[in-house]
Amino acid sequence: MRIEVAGENALIIYFAEETSPTVSVQIQQAALGLEQALGDKLVDLIPSYASLLVIYDALSCDHLWVGACIRGVLGTVQDPNTLTPTPLPQKERGFKTQTPSPPLPMEAPFLSKRPGERGPGGEGVEKTIELPVWYSPESGPDLESLANNAGLTPEEVIAIHQSSAYRVYAIGFAPGFAYLGQVDERIAAPRLASPRLKVPRGAVAIADRQTAVYPDVSPGGWNLIGLCPTRMFDPQATPTMPVSVGDSVRFKAIERDEFLALGGELP
Amino acid sequence: MMKVIQPGVMALLQDGGRFGQHRIGLTTGGPLDRDAFQWANRLCGNEVNATAIEISIGGLVLEAQLDTQIALAGADMTLKINKQAVNGWTTHAVKAGQRIELGYAQHGCRAYLAVAGGFTVEPTFGSSATVVREKLGGLAGAALANGDVLPCPGGQQTPLMTLVAKHRPRYEKAVTLRVIPGYQQQHFTPAQQALFFSSSYTVSDQCDRMGYRLEGQAVQAGISGMLSEGICFGAIQIPANGQPIVLLNDRQTIGGYPKIGSVLSLDIAKLTQLLPGGEIHFQAISMAEAHNALHLADWRWRTTSLTPL
């Protein structure tokens, strides 16, 4: 574990060189602990794959004090070797059920809620969310090329994409954009050489070993394999996002009719 | 209320920014020149982070629909009320039906128009800051357009004030930005760091509220294939082409390019007041120096007074 300066009011904690469910759980624990330790001096936290950015109020405290708080909190974060991570279903183990992941030993929500506001997931406990996907060449223009490059049929790509549960490692890039990992290596695919100027809302996409649902129309270079009718970000809704960091996501194939019936919009 | 007759190049409603929402991927928004923004509000007797209009380049025309007071601070766009040129950095009374017209700046490119009581738009996620990329804040998440109606309370009668010239910032065409080295700084060799801190960069055409891309001496990071991580305000990304990008108010919240450090927030306005072609040098400072600078600036802000007209 390493703490580096990020800016005048920000320190970044690097937990590991690589990401894993265990590292992700540690980051969440540290985030919860820091929220309590820093109190109103905390401005915001950005958890990601293997790091946690801690932004604080530099006029009411300093990096030495925040660094000491971080070291104190990290001392209480469980050692990765003794920690039981949120069980991620492993194909090899034939894990097929959709029981919710057991909650972490912490009850507190991820970040203290402002008055009258709920967490992005509506609670602070990790959950499993199932997202319907209409997989097809029509809804996923890169499905066939991805399958070709992988030496698979589109049906195999679709089956493999659905066969794992994915952890929400980070939320960023755009409102509600959840980075999900890890994608089975057989269907991992590099970003497009030339990004699209317009990826439709709901596009289900793969880049390297990550997968995601585009929450809104945006430019993007990920490989599109389908469309999801579920709104990933709705500023008017409570909660605004169906997932938060630490949750598990599974994908389930649906047909075009069902996609439309669930409110999906054709791009 | 104020009616937008013409929005000019770009005009956005901004408050202090949207904080504490990075966990759902929201950026902060907020004024590119916080100092000028806060002075405009102070001149109108407002809370310092009240909602005001950020005008880039110039050309905004409004029509007041009630009697109120306004102030313009920042770049030196000419300000006309009812066709009479009046001073910036000064409170002015405006009557219902009068037009407020802004020209184009000679020095700097961002100015802030505040109104007594602030513009009263409904906050989204706790803030009225317009982030066009996210379609959030302001009026329906968009820049001001012809015919928009901006609610404001009016009726306030605070004494007319001015900020005397010696306290106003000067917007130069060549600036030095203080940088706190950090993030992947240790992955840049001492020679690459020396190149970065001794070279001159210019602002490219690609400069917006998300970030300013600079052109000049390429700097190479000895690292690639990084995991994406949280990006703080002012972070300096060095992508593979070696040309720095300073990330600003509307930055993406996470990203995977190496970063050499972050620009001190107090110097961001020097950068964001530059147009393409503006010249930049970077100067490394320690965390302790940054801390001192922030407290000194805070002390100056609290001890500098406006002067009654």
Please, could you describe this protein's structure?
The complex is a heterodimer of chains A (267) and B (309). Chain A contains 5 helices and 13 strands. In chain A, the strands form 3 sheets. Chain A has a 7-stranded mixed barrel with strand order 5-12-9-10-7-6-13. A 4-stranded antiparallel sheet of chain A has the order 1-2-4-3, covered by helices on one side. A two-stranded antiparallel ribbon of chain A has the order 8-11. In chain A, helix 1 (21-38) crosses helix 2. Chain A is elongated, with a radius of gyration of 19 Å. By secondary structure, chain A is α+β, with helices and mostly antiparallel strands. The longest helix of chain A has 18 residues, at 21-38. Helices cover 21% and strands 25% of the residues of chain A. Chain A starts with a strand and ends in a 6-residue tail after the last helix. Chain A has helices at 21-38, 63-76, 143-150, 154-163, 256-261; strands at 2-7, 10-14, 42-47, 51-56, 128-135, 166-171, 178-181, 196-199, 203-207, 210-213, 218-220, 223-227, 248-253. Chain A has 2 domains: 2-76, Gyrase A, domain 2 (2-Layer Sandwich); 91-261, Cyclophilin-like (Cyclophilin), CATH 2.40.100.10. By secondary structure, chain B is an alpha+beta fold. Chain B folds into 2 domains: 2-165, no CATH class; 174-302, Cyclophilin. Chain B has 4 helices and 22 strands. Chain B has helices at 34-43, 190-198, 265-272, 287-303; strands at 2-6, 10-14, 52-56, 61-64, 68-74, 79-81, 84-86, 91-94, 99-102, 110-115, 149-150, 161-162, 174-181, 201-207, 211-216, 229-230, 235-237, 245-247, 254-255, 259-263, 279-284, 307-308. The longest helix of chain B has 17 residues, at 287-303. The radius of gyration of chain B is 20 Å and the shape is globular. The chains are: A alpha+beta (267), B alpha+beta (309).
